[in-house]
Design brief:
Oligomer: single chain
Number of strands: 14
Strand order of the largest sheet: 3-2-1-4-5-6-11
Bound molecules: uridine-5'-diphosphate-4-deoxy-4-fluoro-alpha-D-galactose
Largest sheet: 7 strands, parallel
Shape: globular
CATH superfamily of the largest domain: NAD(P)-binding Rossmann-like Domain
CATH topology of the largest domain: Rossmann fold
CATH architecture of the largest domain: 3-Layer(aba) Sandwich
Radius of gyration: 19 Å
Order of helices and strands: EHEEHEHHEHEEHEEEHEEHEEHH
Distance between the termini: 36 Å
Strand content: 15-25%
CATH class of the largest domain: Alpha Beta
Length: 329
């Protein structure tokens, strides 16, 4: 047994896959989630404490009861468009919520934290691939809400000795290969699940947001990384902190970009039918290309994406969405 990890947002997409990885690595896993965007049935590895990170009294008492060795903090809102429409919601949940976690850790004497950050903290970078020292200049409140936390983590580390690993995800995608958890967003806005769910419904047409970008086929380039690989990186980051490692930041991506059109082709290949699609206007705030420089995670955590080729991402996600459809969801 490696100790206990307190997982906020463990009922969500990335959080639930990480709970599985932590469990497999021998950690006792406790999820703390208000189920506002998470799902009770995705909490399969360890117990669930229902609670809001903004409920400071409940959070403090849960942490005092669990006495974790480390915290992995996933609980956050992650819709870019929603963050533009309602920035207060994002700063309250993502930024103030993270401060509540840090204060509860301070009180409970917990000194190790894994934090879910995002490539959205970089904004529109002027060079590719983006390394961890690429200047950060977010273009939406979601990115800012996460970047502020990165800064707060540095300051709490300095003042209170809380060591943190910030993991900047690129495009999380795919699902658990055994179908034990997967991506379930309501509403769904992400490319791969939308394209796959469309294959299960008649009359659905995917809109491609722009084909006039300065990319190899005119559609946006993203760095899709399998959620199981992300989970492996989190387990490694916990080991790193447990081994006495100091605060660090890592990009989690593959270093390979894939266009929207290449995803559409891959979905057709994996599902065996063409994807009905039309070309629409650009979506506001979409950078043309986001590709990670991920050497640092390889070098310091020994992390190597193993499931992130596009066909594996799409076939595991396809398995999950078929299962969801068959279960009546
Ligand atoms: N796209 C379409 N049609 C759709 C949905 C998406 O063409 O119906 C395109 C987008 O324009 C983009 C690509 O598919 O080029 C991927 O879009 P997603 O919405 O799946 O993912 P994003 O790249 O927009 O978002 C991801 C994370 C966010 C994070 C963001 C940083 O999901 O949390 O990267 O840019 F903020």
């Amino acid at each position: 047994m490696s100790g206990t990890v307190f997982v906020t947002g463990g009922a969500g997409y990335v959080g639930s896959h990480c709970c599985k990885a932590f469990h497999q690595a021998g950690w006792n896993v406790v999820t703390y989630d208000n189920l506002s965007r998470g799902w009770r049935d995705l909490v399969r590895w360890g117990e669930l404490i229902e609670g809001d990170i903004l409920d400071e009294a409940r959070l403090a008492s849960a942490m005092a009861d669990v006495k974790p060795d480390a915290v992995a903090h996933f609980a956050a809102l992650a819709y870019v468009g929603e963050s533009v429409d309602d920035p207060g919601l994002y700063y309250r949940n993502n930024t103030l919520g993270s401060m509540a976690i840090l204060d509860a850790m301070k009180t409970a004497g917990v000194d190790k934290l894994i934090f879910s950050s995002t490539c959205a903290t970089y904004g529109v970078p002027d060079r590719m691939p983006m390394t961890e020292d690429t200047p950060q200049s977010p273009i939406n409140p979601y990115g800012w809400s996460k970047l502020f936390v990165e800064k707060i983590l540095d300051d709490y580390g300095h003042a209170h000795g809380i060591r943190s690993v910030k993991l900047r995800y690129f495009n999380a995608a795919g699902a658990d290969a055994n179908g034990e958890t997967g991506e379930r967003h309501e509403p769904e806005t992400h490319l791969i699940p939308l394209a796959l769910q469309g294959q299960l419904r008649d009359g659905f047409g995917l809109t491609i947001f722009g084909d006039d970008f300065d990319t190899r086929d005119g559609t946006c380039v993203r760095d899709y990384v399998h959620v199981t690989d992300l989970a492996d990186a989190h387990a490694r980051a916990l080991d790193y902190l447990r081994g006495g490692g100091g605060s660090e930041v890592f990009n989690l991506g593959t270093g390979t970009g894939t266009t929207v059109m290449e995803i559409v082709e891959a979905v057709a290949r994996v599902t065996g039918r063409p994807v009905q699609h039309t070309i629409g206007p650009r979506r506001e705030g979409d950078p043309p290309a986001l590709v990670a420089g991920a050497d640092k995670a390889r070098e310091m955590l020994g992390w190597q994406p193993r499931h992130s080729d596009i066909d594996t991402i799409i076939s595991t996600a396809w398995g999950w969405h078929q299962k969801e459809a068959n279960s009546g969801r």
